[in-house]
Amino acid sequence: MKILVTVTEIAEADDEFEIDGLSIDDRYLTYDLNEWDDYAIEEAVQVSEAGDDVEVVTATIGPERAEETIRQGLAKGADRAVRVWDDALADVDLLDSATKARLLAAVAREEEPDLILSGVQSADAAFAATGVAMAAELGYEWAAVVNQLDLDEDAGVANVHRELEGGVEELTAVELPAVFTIQTGINEPRYASLRGIRQAQSKPLDVMTPDELGVDRGESALALTSLEEPETESDATYFEGSVDETAAQLAELLHEKGVGA
Amino acid sequence: MSDVLAVTEHRQGELRDVSFEVTTAGRQLADATGGELALAVIGGDVDAYAGQLDVEGVDAVYTVAEGDEFNHDVYTQAIEALADDLDPQYVVAPHTVNGLDYAPAVAQHLAVPLVTDVIEFDASGGLAVTRELYGGKTEAGIDVEGDRAMVTIRPGEWEPAGGDGDARVEAFDADIDDDAVRSTVSGFEAVGAGDVDISEAEVLVSVGRGIEEEDNLDIIFELADALDATVSASRPIVDNEWLPQDRQVGQSGKTVTPEVYIAIGISGAVQHVAGMKGSETIVAINNDPSAPIYDIADYGIVNDLFDVVPALTEQFQ
Ligand SMILES: Cc1cc2nc3c(=O)[nH]c(=O)nc-3n(C[C@H](O)[C@H](O)[C@H](O)COP(=O)(O)OP(=O)(O)OC[C@H]3O[C@@H](n4cnc5c(N)ncnc54)[C@H](O)[C@@H]3O)c2cc1C
Ligand SMILES: Nc1ncnc2c1ncn2[C@@H]1O[C@H](COP(=O)(O)O)[C@@H](O)[C@H]1O
């Protein structure tokens, strides 16, 4: 069995940051593995550890910088990685989910996985759409926001829980092959061991261009026109001063509200 | 092709509030395009739902009587069949868990651009939307290219539509292909019932990822003890199993409306805020002045929680 996990490197803004044109100035960005994809990798690795002959491959659309992040997946137990990129992609301000889905689906067509896991959303763009769009592109079945996954390979189905709003879960049987978008909390992602980190250095990480994958990159249908820090909607009162002074002011407020009385 | 199709949502026999929000958003788009607003209601007691959805601004309600509950293979087929028939310029859906289970597939099949989790739009000349990027720290203006689009809207951003309508209600035969229904919903399960009901608490001391380690929760419980308050949490604390599911505040946890909500080391992600924005007084303790929690907080201390929390506890001892 082969499992493909889509993995994205996300950019996180520092506490204080500056916007430069249509992006946050790179000096204020920290790059990391997307939290949801970390859970997806763990889910795939657990399946591979429980079965014989399960290969876990990760797929990423991203620049060379992302390789460090991708190696985290290899260090945690994925077998191989594929990275898709070319210079034209570097010029796009905001890749829409359809473009990402098309490129990732091209990787899937080469790999022919039985199962594809993606994250519910990327922490930075947060479209929460790429996984399901990829399923539609491939003609795979799917389920979004999965927080429990039990494979029944003989029956060709996966029994999943979809986490709905308000503490309710939907129980669904999904025919394979399928794409599942994985929700945080589904498992306990491991930390990479030193041995894993060492081994990751020698695991294959192939770089492909959209051309090589035989797909038309297409144009992102979403054009970024502005990026701003939102004007804050409330007029919060900030307590200022030393730690003890602010604590005393807050305590006074709480006393007024009858708290702790 | 100036019409707008908005997709409504229901669960376990009830229309969800967001159905009336997509109605408002859909009307706004239809006003800009000069077209009609049609609603789709798929599955369940569609006739009863259609009656409730006949509110001001709705021109037509199309009912697709197929199954009881949500099934994405039915929804995608039904919406696509409706879109083929009505030729809408825009399709609007809610950015809910079920919305994310069908909207990307529908957009892909209809070959229209998709923009999700929109908080504002302007369709006066093409479609321009506003949505957040970088975990709510920035707002982006985005032009959606092409004549048509599918949009999902963030719940709670549009006022729910109301009033009396005079919509046409039409049963629509979507000609669902059962062979293409490759997933089966077998039921629902409620999670997170426990001995503490945070939704009843008057004062909540709520802890987030800023606490860093499980052992550090001690300072939170000490504060809660001193304040005679109940401890709740954001999702990562529950995902890590440091606190049980019944303590989780937010979209997939509980909705709380205490007199005082003290958010400690919580960034204020939209899914968290969805569960606590109705609190009477919101206090935030977070060392990041740009954290979105400050957009809804009434009071704030921008500082290290490991300094502030023990100092606050001391004030009550
Ligand atoms: C479908 C779906 C459903 C979801 N449902 C929920 C839900 O029900 N509830 C929920 O909470 N989330 C939910 N989420 C997750 C949500 O998107 C966020 O990931 C989550 O709320 C973040 O939790 P947090 O604020 O604790 O962590 P973070 O976003 O990591 O924030 C931690 C904060 O702590 C601050 N901090 C760090 N160190 C310190 C310090 N020493 N002193 C003071 N402050 C410090 C940081 O500045 C930061 O603002 C859901 C997501 C999805 C996709
Ligand atoms: N650039 C990317 N490379 C690989 N996978 C991605 C990329 N962007 C998104 N994904 C996958 O799609 C999921 C949802 O992302 P999004 O639709 O952007 O919120 C992520 O959790 C990833 O698994």
In short:
The complex is a heterodimer of chains A (261) and B (317). With 261 residues, chain A is α/β, with parallel strands linked by helices. Chain A is 30% helix and 31% strand.
Question: Could you characterize what this model shows?
Answer:
Chain A has one domain: HUPs (Rossmann fold, 3-Layer(aba) Sandwich). Chain A is built from 8 helices and 15 strands. With 261 residues, chain A is α/β, with parallel strands linked by helices. The mean pLDDT of chain A is 96. With 317 residues, chain B is of the alpha/beta class. In chain B, 27% of the residues lie in helices and 27% in strands. In chain B, the strands form 4 sheets. In chain B, strands 7-11-6-1-4-5-12 form a 7-stranded parallel beta sheet, with helices on both faces. Chain B is elongated and about 70 Å long. The mean pLDDT of chain B is 96. The chains are: A alpha/beta (261), B alpha/beta (317). The site of adenosine monophosphate has 24 residues of chain A, from helix 1, strand 6, helix 4, strand 8 and helix 5.
Give the helices and strands, then pairings.
The complex is a heterodimer of chains A (261) and B (317).
Chain A: E1 2-6, E2 9-13, E3 19-20, E4 23-24, E5 29-33, H1 35-50, E6 55-61, H2 67-75, E7 80-84, H3 87-90, H4 97-111, E8 115-119, H5 130-138, E9 141-152, E10 157-163, E11 168-175, E12 178-182, H6 194-200, E13 205-208, H7 210-213, E14 222-228, E15 237-238, H8 243-256
Parallel strand pairs in A: 1-6, 1-8, 6-7, 7-13, 8-12, 9-12
Antiparallel strand pairs in A: 2-5, 3-4, 9-10, 10-11
Helix pairs in contact in A: 2-6, 4-5
Chain B: E1 4-7, E2 10-11, E3 14-15, H1 18-33, E4 37-42, H2 46-53, E5 60-64, H3 72-86, E6 90-94, H4 99-110, E7 114-118, E8 120-122, E9 127-133, E10 138-144, E11 149-153, E12 168-171, E13 183-190, E14 203-207, H5 217-227, E15 230-233, H6 235-239, E16 260-264, H7 270-273, E17 281-285, H8 293-296, E18 299-301, H9 305-315
Helix pairs in contact in B: 3-4, 5-9
